[in-house]
Amino acid sequence: MSAESQTFTERYDLLGCIQCGRCTGGCPVTVRANLNVRRFVNDAYYEEKLDELARQAEIWDCTACHTCAVRCPKGLKPLEVLLGLRAMIIESGKVEPTVRDALQSVLLEGNPWEKSRAARSDWMEGLDVKIAEPGVPVENLFFVCCTIAYDPRVQAIAKNIVRLLNKTGVDYAFLDDSETCCGSEVYTLGEEGLFEMLVEDNTEYFNEYSAKRIVTLSPHCFTTYNVHYPDLNKPVIHYTQLLDELLKEGKLVWKGDLPKKIVFHDPCYLGKQGGVYDEPRDLLKSIPGAELLEFERCRERSLCCEGGGGKMWVESESKKERLAETRIKDAKALGADIVAVACPFCVLTLEDAMKGLGYEEEMRVAEIMELLGEFIEA
Amino acid sequence: MKTIVCIKYVPDTSEAEVKVNPDGITVDSSRFSFDINDADNYAVEESVLIKEAKGGEITVVSIGPKKSDVMIRMAMAKGCDKAVRIEDDRIAGHDPLMVAKVLAGAAKGEEFDLVLTGCMASDDGHMSTGVALAEELGVNHASMVKKIEVLDGGKIKVSRELEGGLMEVVELELPAVITIQTGINEPRYAPIRGIREAQKKELKVVKLDDLGVDPASVGPDASQIILEALYIPEVESSAEFIAGDPNEKAEKLASILVKGGLI
Amino acid sequence: MGNVLVLAEHRQGVLRDISFEMLAVAPKLAADMGGEAMVLLIGSSMDDMAKKAAGYGVKVMVVDDPLFKDFNADKYQKVLSALIDDLKPAVVITGHTAQGVDFMPALAVEKKLPLIAEVIGLEYAGGTLKATRQLYSGKVNATLAFKPADTYLVTFREGAVEAPAPSSAGTVEKLDSPLKEDLPYRKFVEYIESEVGDVDITQSNILVAIGRGLKEDKNLPLIEELAKAIKADIAGSRAAIDAGWIPHDRQVGTSGKSVKPKLYIAMGISGAFQHIAGIKGAKTVVAINKDPDAPIFAVADYAIVDDMFKIIPKLTEKLKELKG
Predict the structure, then answer these.
(1) Does B190 touch chain A (CB under 8 A)?
(2) Among A131, A248, B102, C196, which is least packed by CB within 10 angstroms?
(3) pLDDT of residue C271
(4) Which residue of C lies nearest to A155 if distances are taken between CA atoms?
(5) Residue of chain B minimizing CA distance to C289
(6) Does pLDDT of C46 surpass 80?
(7) How high is the pLDDT of residue C257?
(8) What is the ipTM of this complex?
(9) Any CB–CB contact under 8 A between A313 and chain C?
(10) Does A151 touch chain B (CB under 8 A)?
């Protein structure tokens, strides 16, 4: 058990649960895995059962998409019971080596990808990027995210934002390599102590900057800062919100056109958890020639891609179709040319699924900023 | 069982570009990330597994800078009980025989049945320190160990990993120094709460003089080898693309693999 | 006299390759130092091996006694310690192997002699013996010089040089064993062969890794044949595991395993960042992919841009031929 004095029941308000089953009923993972979140909420009430529950492999199948929380009529967050059980395993130290290495890398290097902190801003090379300094006023302080900073597949998100900002004359600055993981995946992997440390250190770090607001590139950072950082002294928005403002002010002018059918996949951490639905759509619609389609399961009903909840480091045993594959098949059935997303994890999972299905020739997965990057005037 | 586990704080250079400093004998480590040496991490886990099974106490010994304390605290979070960190710039670190003398100085101040350490450091890779340490201490040893069984009567049975996956099983009388090969176990995670708890455990920071080791006996003058130069070898900077039609490509690759001793 | 004493290595009745590789270095070094290269064999019933070693035109000395039936680091140390006193060699070279590393550092401490380990080159000039070795998994080379000493100790890396061809017949001389009785404190128990079918890819020496490019499981035998020819284990990217081509525990990458083989052959793997993270420890990476922009090429040492199915059959055939 964690060091908290609260019991499990108090902590997760287990007595508030009416066992209606809407959580499990809506859980997207149930089609692949044996996870029944309602049962965990029920059984966790018995303190003596906790150790056994924590050892169930299914607790690692949860992607923390928050569908259960969105659907709960009592306003509970059933998934957090699973995260609490994960925390018990983490405290014992006996975790999968992949999880161990990711968490240790966050502690030592500030990112879960086992990359050197010194390399965090290498993506900026060759770009004219304004760097923030504590105390120097700036309107928009950008937070890049570990995955975008280090994974070459999604670095274009950050690079294109910089090109666009330089073009529009927006007052902005990026953090240097002192930027540290927001802890989104640390939280969902159940490393409570490390997450508390990140919240404390990052809050202190951000509060030293005289920025009007923080702009994140990943929805995971966006939601994590908004939900779990109570003492941040500035608001946090997602970059699609900033760009939508610029669009409305007439500051975004695109060069060329894209006569393609685009379907937007709502990232769980931007939509269900962040309430941002329209801004990314408006941005896509602003591309000349683009036709925006909608998934049948869109907005708060959007299907999870299984990229969150620490799943980048925990592979499912399930041999059944990945949710990302289901999503890509749906897109294909709609006749979409492009599946647009606004999250680095969604790019990785959906693109992987698209390649796995052999649709590379006819379809493309792209982050919104990757698409917009092609239309920035030189 | 009283165990000493010797660990080293090393840079991870697997992906980093390595540059030699203008002095020609050191490398620029400013962009490296540092962590416990891989094999030493397994040694720590093995010491904790033995303690969990047989009881006892584990002392961490390490030569390194202040910033390596986080590595030591992590070992403590996993179950090590106390630590000695030697911070002294008079040690000829390029010579494992000198390093072994320093570690022996630290070990002599402790009671022990077993000394565990990684079989190899990932930075300089001599694979010499542990076996030299055993001789300095006048105790038995076995290197590259992939399995330890504690037997009755002050003995252990260990399996040494030989080339080609063969295991050599050896019985030793304790006390002994065992150098641990990676893969002997699955090192656990050190949760932050454990690391915080471990701040309460004793970590002594000492100099050579505190250990009764004469600095002149482990310094560059005492070492019988001189590091003359470091340089970047002119190979493997980037991929060699093999050209030709498919058959030619296959043949060329086959001969590269065979001639290069890669298979 | 600048004699160079090479300790030939053998196991289960067979001389290991490193024994001959050291003979590519020792004779020239001995000549430069004004002495000759000699081979030492320690073991039991060594006649055949002694004869074979002598076929490289060197003097072979044999310590032949049932006490040395199985390798024992402490016994080897005792023999070498005594022979260094008797023969006063200028250099003693052993393999940087599970045998060499198990006693050479102890010998160095005992005899107060300098040791340089895992050497890939030796040069004697102007009265100084210098050794080349590698640091940071081969990213940096180091030149080290021995200060003057009666005997220099060296362990030599396996596969660093090519073994010479046998030449003229040398001589074989039996030496008295300096060890008269067994040692009570270290006993050889047995050899255990690694279990087959129970592969731990984190311990594999050579890995043949497959990805999405395999397309379907009926192509798997091609890969298996290649793997068998070069004694490799088969691993794969997440795509290969997902497709059910290979078991879950063979997955390489952030959600699978980190591997550290000597050779990693990636076939039809594009090299997502999450896969590449798992092969950081690989010494040499070969990549075959039809996409010239596949990120796997950024971490490859040898690259072929082509359809893997056009390459593999010929590659397997050629490798079989070259390996004899």
Answers:
(1) yes
(2) C196
(3) 87
(4) C273
(5) B241
(6) yes
(7) 85
(8) 0.91
(9) yes
(10) no
C239 close to A (CB below 8 A): yes
pLDDT at C197: 53
Give me the residues paired with residue A112 across strands: none
CB C202 within 8 A of CB C249: no
Q: Is A317 on the interface with C (CB under 8 A)?
A: yes
Give residue A4's pLDDT band: very low, low, confident or very high (50, 70, 90): low
Q: Which two tokens stand for residue A335?
A: 């006749």
**Tens of pLDDT along B87-126?**
999 999 999 999 999 999 999 989 999 999 999 999 999 9
* Helix (H), strand (E), coil (C) string for chain A: CCCCCCCHHHHCCHHHCCCCCHHHHHCHHHHCCCCCHHHHHHHCCCHHHHHHHHCCHHHHCCCCCCHHHHHCCCCCCCHHHHHHHHHHHHHHCCCCHHHHHHHHHHHHHCCCCCCCHHHCCHHHCCCCCCECCCCCCEEEEEECCHHHHHCCCCHHHHHHHHHHHHHHCCCEEECCCCCCCCCHHHHHCCCHHHHHHHHHHHHHHHHCCCEEEEEECCHHHHHHHHHHCCCCCCCEEEHHHHHHHHHHCCCCCECCCCCCEEEECCCCCCCCCCCCCHHHHHHHHCCCCCEEECCCCCHHHCCCCCCCCCCCCCCCCCCCCCHHHHHHHHHHHHCCCEEEECCHHHHHHHHHHHHHCCCCCCCEEEEHHHHHHCCECC
Confidence of residue C198 (pLDDT cuts 50, 70, 90): low
Question: Which CATH code of 3.30.470.20, 1.10.1060.10, 3.30.43.10, 2.120.10.30 fits the domain covering A8-92?
Answer: 1.10.1060.10
This prediction has a pTM of 0.89
Q: Does domain A98-246 have CATH number 2.60.120.330?
A: no
Q: Which of A104, A181, A196, A198 would best serve as a mutation to test chain B binding (most B beta carbons within 10 A)?
A: A104
Instruction: Show me where the domains of chain A are located.
Output: 8-92, 98-246, 252-373
Q: With beta carbons under 8 A apart, name residues in chain C contacting B129.
A: 105
Which CATH architecture is the domain A252-373 placed in?
3-Layer(aba) Sandwich (3.40)
Span C150-194, pLDDT tens digits = 999 999 998 788 899 999 889 999 999 999 999 989 999 999 976
- What pLDDT score does C199 carry? 81
pLDDT-above-70 percentage for chain B: 98
